[in-house]
Write a structure and sequence with these properties.
about 375 residues; alpha/beta; Rossmann fold; 2 domains; seven-stranded parallel beta sheet; 17 helices
């Protein structure tokens, strides 16, 4: 180990000890009851026993995108994630799923694998260092440097250069990402597009489309439900809400119930009646969003009217819905660039947009990502 890696490990250990009380407190919350104990205390989080290709991603969206690659490999793989939603998705792909432990545990937790394949921006120093120290081939795939994070990356370019020195090959989303990665000290970069477009969505259940116009508010966050309700023209048609986080279902239910009562509209929760007969419906079940897109005429994509960074627009475009988004899409720019006909609107202009939504163009996919170069590398291991 180099002097830098020793100092880095000591700093990571110091921070761990400092934040121990906070971690204990957060682990009591329902959202983190599995992730924090697994990642920071190694509870029910044993080493990988299977010697294979090890994939790592952060959350649900990135993990879903890996499935098309793993399916094509047709072999048992190992898969680690960071978030609880990512872990739930990972278990659907392979039984060899784990939470990635905090960095101080990695030197003792990591077992030798054929290769380490890391998704997008999971640039953990100890992860790549330990992988290389065990003679693994290392890859960073679907790599991107967003506009928002670019300045931050540049400020610590000396640090990222050390991370990239332990990465053998990088597959970037765009030429801009390649240029930015090279500025940060990365090398051996190939542009293959966004691999999230390599896996097209599939519905899990087919619902009968209502005869009237269907507007879906998808993956909404705090304050966005109120904004959409204020902008909603009741004569437009049905309004379906699918909040991003299940822990907000109860709060959104109260908001929609009160609005419906005040405006003499019918309302129900999808968990109680699995149909869309009411004027407003709250979809309070996970895994239904793609099925809802399939019967929607227009979609307001959440996480974009607040400073969240937006959400994946590919599924909306695949089903040919009119796509409306707020301005804050800094985490999804590469995906929006792969879509024809979408509408970015300010919060104050949403009402006017919805008043004219039936005259707006439908969205469609422009290009699909290519994973053949990644598969070629992995098949040659």
């Amino acid at each position: 180990m180099t002097l830098f890696s020793i100092l880095y490990y000591i700093l990571a250990l110091f921070l761990y000890l400092i934040f121990l009380p906070f971690l204990f407190f957060k682990s009591k919350k329902l959202k983190y009851k599995e992730a924090i104990p697994a990642r920071f205390f190694l509870k029910n989080n044993k080493k990988f026993k299977h010697h294979s290709i090890w994939f790592h991603s952060c959350s649900m969206g990135e993990t879903k995108a890996l499935k098309v690659i793993i399916d094509k490999l047709k072999q048992e793989v190992n898969l680690s994630v960071v978030t609880n939603t990512g872990y739930e998705e990972a278990k659907k792909i392979t039984s060899n799923s784990r939470y990635l432990p905090y960095e101080i545990f990695l030197p003792f937790w990591i077992t030798k694998q054929k290769a380490l394949v890391v998704m997008e921006a999971e640039l953990w120093y100890m992860l790549f260092l330990c992988a290389k120290s065990k003679d693994m081939k290392t890859f960073l795939i679907n790599a991107r440097i967003s506009d928002k994070s670019y300045k931050s990356y540049k400020r610590f370019s000396w640090f990222y250069k050390k991370i990239f020195s332990n990465i053998d090959k990088i597959f970037a989303q765009s030429k801009i990402d390649k240029e930015r990665l090279e500025e940060l000290g990365a090398s051996n970069i190939e542009v293959i597009g966004n691999i999230k477009l390599a896996q097209l969505p599939k519905i899990s259940k087919e619902y009968e489309k209502p005869k009237t116009f269907v507007l879906t508010a998808a993956s909404t966050h705090e304050k966005e439900e109120e904004l959409i309700l204020q902008s909603y023209n009741q004569e437009l048609g049905k309004l379906i809400f699918v909040p991003r986080h299940p822990e907000r279902f109860a709060k959104v239910d109260c908001i929609l119930k009160e609005f419906s009562k005040k405006n003499k509209l019918t309302y129900h929760k999808f968990s109680q009646k699995q149909n869309f007969d009411s004027d407003i419906v709250l979809v309070d079940k996970m895994g239904e969003l793609v099925n809802i897109f399939a019967i929607s005429d227009a979609v307001i994509l959440g996480g974009s009217f607040e400073n969240i960074g937006g959400h994946n627009p590919v599924e909306v475009a695949y089903f040919g819905c009119t796509l409306i988004s707020g301005e804050h899409i800094f985490n999804q720019k590469a995906l929006f660039e792969a879509i024809n006909d979408f509408y970015i609107v300010k919060s104050g202009d949403l009402k006017e947009t919805l008043d004219n939504v039936k005259r707006l163009n439908k969205s469609s996919l422009q290009q699909i990502g290519d994973i053949s170069a990644i598969l070629k590398e992995l098949h040659e291991l």
